[in-house]
From TrEMBL:
<protein>
    <submittedName>
        <fullName>Cyclic nucleotide-binding domain-containing protein</fullName>
    </submittedName>
</protein>
<dbReference type="InterPro" id="IPR014710">
    <property type="entry name" value="RmlC-like_jellyroll"/>
</dbReference>
<dbReference type="InterPro" id="IPR018490">
    <property type="entry name" value="cNMP-bd_dom_sf"/>
</dbReference>
<dbReference type="InterPro" id="IPR000595">
    <property type="entry name" value="cNMP-bd_dom"/>
</dbReference>
<feature type="domain" description="Cyclic nucleotide-binding">
    <location>
        <begin position="9"/>
        <end position="111"/>
    </location>
</feature>
<dbReference type="InterPro" id="IPR050397">
    <property type="entry name" value="Env_Response_Regulators"/>
</dbReference>
<dbReference type="GO" id="GO:0003700">
    <property type="term" value="F:DNA-binding transcription factor activity"/>
</dbReference>
<dbReference type="GO" id="GO:0005829">
    <property type="term" value="C:cytosol"/>
</dbReference>
<dbReference type="Pfam" id="PF00027">
    <property type="entry name" value="cNMP_binding"/>
</dbReference>
Length: 154
């Protein structure tokens, strides 16, 4: 299981941008076992975890969903909200009770269009998270399905 943390909003965004986003955050809680979203559904929000663990998973035909990454404190849950067509590319489930900050994607996208500096900072942050998640997905899928040692040469 990949445990390297994704880029945190606290480290990625300048204080003024972080404060603007946190001003519109809503505190939410999810019991263990709650599906936050399903692959292919509309991506209309995202979260920053305060406490607990969320696992990202990917559908694999003929198999159980493959867990790609476990997310914890201060990590972003969801990036698909930023990029058209705004559809989740993975699924997510709370594997412990979770407390998080929830953000409305439409509102954040509007703020980013109206303030190019904020938009650039958010795009860079989410892009860094996306790049990390793609590397994690590749590594995890090689661990699960490739012949032994297949991913070691890359």
């Amino acid at each position: 299981m990949i445990t390297t943390p994704t880029p945190s909003m606290l480290r990625a965004l300048p204080a003024e941008h972080r404060q603007r986003l946190m001003h519109m955050a809503r505190e939410v809680s999810f019991p263990e076992g709650t599906r936050l979203f399903e692959e292919g559904d509309r991506a209309d929000r995202f979260w920053i975890i305060r406490t607990g663990t969320v696992e990202l998973d990917m559908r694999v035909p003929g198999r159980r969903p493959a867990v790609i990454e476990s997310l914890r404190h201060n990590e972003l849950v969801g990036w698909s909200w930023l990029f058209t067509p705004h559809v989740w590319h993975l699924g997510a489930e709370a594997t412990t009770p979770v407390r998080a900050y929830e953000f409305d994607a439409t509102t954040v996208r509007t703020m980013c269009r109206e303030d190019p500096a904020l938009g650039n900072a958010v795009a860079q942050w989410v892009g860094d998270v996306l790049a990390h998640r793609l590397r994690s997905a590749r590594t995890r899928l090689l661990d699960l399905y490739a012949p032994y040692g297949a991913g070691s040469a890359v």
